[in-house]
Amino acid sequence: xxxxxxxxxxxxxxxxxxxxxxxxxxxxxxxxxxxxxxxxxxxxxxxxxxxxxx
Amino acid sequence: xxxxxxxxxxxxxxxxxxxxxxxxxxxxxxxxxxxxxxxxxxxxxxxxxxxxxxxxxxxxxxxxxxxxxxxxxxxxxxxxxxxxxxxxxxxxxxxxxxxxxxxxxxxxxxxxxxxxxxxxxxxxxxxxxxxxxxxxxxxxxxxxxxxxxxxxxxxxxxxxxxxxxxxxxxxxxxxxxxxxxxxxxxxxxxxxxxxxxxxxxxxxxxxxxxxxxxxxxxxxxxxxxxxxxxxxxxxxxxxxxxxxxxxxxxxxxxxxxxxxxxxxxxxxxxxxxxxxxxxxxxxxxxxxxxxxxxxxxxxxxxxxxxxxxxxxxxxxxxxxxxxxxxxxxxxxxxxxxxxxxxxxxxxxxxxxxxxxxxxxxxxxxxxxxxxxxxxxxxxxxxxxxxxxxxxxxxxxxxxxxxxxxxxxxxxxxxxxxxxxxxxxxxxxxxxxxxxxxxxxxxxxxxxxxxxxxxxxxxxxxxxxxxxxxxxxxxxxxxxxxxxxxxxxxxxx
Lengths: 54, 492
Hints:
heterodimer, A: 91% helix, rod-shaped, B: mainly alpha
């Protein structure tokens, strides 16, 4: 391990970082999807309202 | 003989496929405009962007060739991933190129080129991007199918049918929901893919063991298995070529940059890059570990590309095998959908631009975008699956990639940061970037020049392409007589 510490460190970093990020992105990404669709809905409603007013 | 259990693992795979298709189809109601279809209305936020970028840039082909790198080069084989991570981090932190690109509000890179180089360069760039991208993507289906056949023990006679069904499924939700469907399905596929990659890697590290893997690499490759500069098949030219290649990819590979263009603002785009950058180390090192484990377990094999799936087919137990296959399907589907949409967007936005003299209605625009994706799907089936490719796969990927990346990166950097850059320089750069790789490829095949091509090697040829493309941009631009309008702009 000491001899090839760089690759040992990179391998462990990959496993730990990737595991952590997967959980974090799974939670936050779900919220992002919800907000994105809500913003698209709001924009669509506003554009339809403007179209009717014209 | 594999550990794939049709009841247990087949059920896991089936549930994953149904859930993905359902999610992809559900968001189609939000698509009302071309902007929604191509760039999700520019409403993508950071974490969704990270999931989508990571899922898009990891497909079965990626897993196969990165594992092959681990098998053939040991830990040093992960070098390209480290270089890409560094490039993406630096670009994200500094905003180099991506800031002006996102600020311009364009949907594709060639659209930006028109402002500076004119409509002909925009069109030529679109052709280069689409040709490079589609030819590159042409190998994905068959290679992905071969992996799945090896790992699941499926009869090879069903390979074409299986991959056709998969592509049709992906095409359906991509055609209907565009980038919105791609983002939502990418998010799900990222979770499934990541779970599979992490669990299998931990299993391998526990079963094979770190010391065994290190000893295997030392025995087979010596110090070169840990240091790319002294590896006889790599060296400084390999590192430099990959630095140029991966920096260019970070800046111009349309599927990657599409996440920046779909971001709700420039800062979000930059954050997506900086926070995803380390993923590209994982992208090479994790399958690389699998490749090293395959070397430790199987020893020398005739076809190194098949080593990793052959090893996994008996090393991964039932249950976990279902998760692994679902993970790999997730990886492939996310890549296929994103790539089809991306190349389709360049065809619509740039190659078809001359045919859109008058503004098209949103309905007409959506119809054409959807039709283009359908045509791309048919092309992929015919070219990639039913018509077997000949020749060396990686040389093929390298050539198609360099033609695109060398010219587009030079054009993009010049477009953003050099006022004197113009259409002559852009045209020269495009020409040189195509001429050198194609000349190299042809030279390899012609008996009279094969030895010379071998002596030059792909890395020196690739480095020369980038450098000479840059030189062509400078020389070509300086040669063009400046108009009075150009002089006023320069002195302003």
